[in-house]
Amino acid sequence: MMKKLLQIALMGFVVCGFVSCRESDEAAVDASGKRTFEVRGVVQELRNEGEVLVIDHEEIPGYMRQMIMPFKVAAGEPAIDLTPGEEIEFLYEVEEVTSRISKIRKTGVVKEVKLGSIEDIKDFDDVKVLAIGDTLPEYEFKDQDGQEVKLSSYRGMPVALSFVFSRCPVPEYCPAMMRNFNEVEEALKNDPDSPEGWKLLTISFDTWMDNPETMKAYGTAFGRDSDQWSLLSTDNCCTIHEISGNIGLKFADKDGSFVHNLRTVVLDAEGKIARVFTDESWKVEDLVSEMKRLGRIDS
Fold it and tell me: Residue 30 — φ and ψ, nearest 5°?
């Protein structure tokens, strides 16, 4: 119980560090803890036939600063004909692990589209996209304690890498990657068939805002409690661009707002790519099984 309370308190610290931490007169909280915000923003992209809208939204006081983020449209929400550039108002409902938007209304205003589709983001021409069986090159980061680490430091054991930025509060995206790694950490620690050695690495691609101190608080807020899960950051944008290009992670920013996809990569004991999960839908048991399989191969 104390551990849970500590995680909740630390999560509040992390969120308050990234947005102006004040009570919002735009948020309503119901008996279940669901928060509802009134939001205005500009449509940047429609995904999955309009089931997901990428929106450049205004600051959501007490929750999220101005960002460009994907939002899932509530099931049963009446269809509305939208095009990129149209300004809309909507309700954003946030629960512990899910969120959705509803009551979408056009304002009649058309504004600039800041970022295009994720598919339109150019690959890095000088970076090779690697395939299963290729060795991930050497990269250097700082861990949550400020210690310099290299990917080669973890040779000899299976390694899973995920990529996030800590300012992302939307529960289905970066926070989902953190929750999943917390569950993988617990599962591997408590499974007698786990490899003798294994490592989880969460890497921030936000070279502007994320540093060791930030990442340490972020990891603690999501339950990290062992050295077998490290949170890495760097202020070298070339490092992030190169490793992102290697694994097909795409992101672009404008004024600190990101549009990005997701990647979770599993390396074998030799640092070779064994598996790539390309979105947020992977299951904890699938990653645990992959880590155990690679541990058997390597033993």
Answer: -90, -175
